[in-house]
Amino acid sequence: MASDSIVENNGEKKLRLIAKCVVGGVALGLSIWGIHATGLSETLELWVRKKKKPTRVYMDGCFDMMHYGHCNALRQARNLGDQLVVGVVSDAEITANKGPPVTPLHERLIMVQAVKWVDEVIPDAPYAITEDFMKKLFDEYNIDYIIHGDDPCLLPDGSDAYALAKRAGRFKQIKRTEGVSSTDIVGRMLLCVRERSSNEKSNHSSLQRQFSHGHSQKFDDGGGTRISHFLPTSRRIVQFSNGKGPKPDSRIVYIDGAFDLFHAGHVEILRLARELGDFLLVGIHTDQTVSAKRGSHQPIMNLHERSLSVLACRYVDEVIIGAPWEVSKDTITTFNISLVVHGTVAESDDFQQEEDNPYAVPISMGIFKVIESPLDITTTTIIKRIVANHEAYQKRNEKKAASERKYYEERTFVSGD
Questions:
Q1: Kind of pairing, strands 145-149 and 368-371?
Q2: Which of 148, 174, 200 is the last residue of a domain?
Q3: Residue 265 belongs to some domain of the structure
Q4: What sign does the CA torsion over 194, 384, 398, 60 have?
Q5: Are 378 and 408 in contact, with CB atoms under 8 Å apart?
Q6: Rounded to an integer, what distance in angstroms lies between the CA atom of residue 242 and that of residue 193?
Q7: Residues 381, 261 contacting (CB under 8 angstroms)
Q8: Alpha-carbon distances of 355 from 25, 165, 273, 358, rounded to whole Å
């Protein structure tokens, strides 16, 4: 906007004036000592201009079946700079290097753009950082550093996809989030498939073992959801949280659900919900509640994993971790909720029931609204995609495992360990 430009120009003029005043004082002092100060003004002004330039960092990825581990990587990358540019790899590149993605590019773009630490997105990014693309990042996008996790990212020939960036001295590494991976999540999904023929059961069990990385399958006390390897801490929740509450006069909108396998359909309904008020409060149901409503093998992601995925969304202001199934009068009063909303696409139609309707209270108060879901995607949709293409994903995982083995074997041989 023009006003922003004026403010920015005035700020720059003030900085230059300060620089000149400083130079004048320094130059006077130096002249007393007989030291020539030519060029000092230009040097300080250059420093002021450089100080204004934000550090721009780049991180790319497939971001397939995006989870809180991806979000945490983006959070860490953003902390290494002032602006985070994210490249989302094309469907064709993923297929060529890893196998078919579970979620298509347009859904993956919705997911990445919704992460609150992301400033800019480059669609159809290449899987490998080529010399030409690296030059484009540096020259056209003004990227200062390329970021990736400490896990290997290998090309089909077994080489490092970030070798050029490392040789250029423009690479920075972040720590991989332990306890979650897309392959692990696929393994969990397959446990949700209950009605199968004996032949299908054999194939799915084999695939589940492939994707589990050898972890033993542990279950909760109810015999349902597999226990994840994620250990939540208060610090991680704080890192993901906005840390700000609503203002006294804020219009607070409330939406609840399982938000399992957080996907583009969730993101889009949250976006619309946020547009209806000033503060979006999201209730996330407990694992026990989800299991009771959807079956013992769900949810796939546990409560804290689901909470972090929702917290990472830029449209969400706060979450209730373990929200009650029914939206009570007490909940509405406690959180000063102005409007309760629900999408038209969901795993069940409980909100349309006359008896045991979880939204009976907000409906009676006249503060309940059904909003049209932009995308026809549910958690079941994602599970069906996996099951329908189980052979392709099995091959993809076997290929990945072989490449990683080769990578670590070569590193061991070079290091002499």
A1: unpaired
A2: 174
A3: yes
A4: negative
A5: no
A6: 36
A7: no
A8: 80, 61, 25, 9
User: What confidence score (pLDDT) does residue 399 get?
Assistant: 58
Dig out the tokens for 251 from the structure.
């219009």
Strands (E), 3-91: 56-61, 83-89
Average pLDDT over residues 290-295: 89
Percent of the chain with pLDDT over 70: 68
* 232 has pLDDT over 50: yes
pLDDT in tens, 2-20: 444 444 445 555 545 554 5
- Mean pLDDT across the chain: 79
Whether pLDDT at 86 is above 70: yes
Q: How many domains does the chain have?
A: 2
**Within a domain: residue 93?**
yes
CA-wise closest residue to 100 among 62, 129, 153: 62
Place of tokens 């089909």: 156
In the sheet with 368-371, reading across from the earlier edge strand, the strands are 318-323, 279-285, 252-257, 337-343, 368-371
- What gap in Å lies between CA 86 and CA 105, rounded to an integer? 14
- Please tell me the distance from the alpha carbon of residue 384 to that of residue 406, in angstroms, as a whole number: 32
State the pLDDT at residue 128. 87
Residue range of the domain that includes 273: 243-379
